[in-house]
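Our preliminary data section would be incomplete without showing what the modeling component actually yields. Below, a chain of 67 amino acids is followed by its predicted structure, encoded as tokens that our downstream tools consume directly.
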Amino acid sequence: MNWKGFSIAEVERDSLRSNWKPLWGTRQNYPDNHNALTLELKDENSYTSFLLRMYDEGLVFKYKIEN
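Predicted structure:
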């Protein structure tokens, strides 16, 4: 994949402060507190999206490539 031809299509920031309840387990709810950044790149033939989510305990990195 050649990154030189890509341009930034969109940058989106998000923040979430909530709780989620599991179906089973030792705790009744878990905090879901994170900051997120989505970066969308495109060129003539493809589209790529990167999601970076930062938690107090770690991070999540997800990408999607479409041709």
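The two ends are 11 Å apart (CA to CA). The CA atoms of residues 52 and 61 lie 5 Å apart. Preliminary results of this kind motivate Aim 1 of the renewal.
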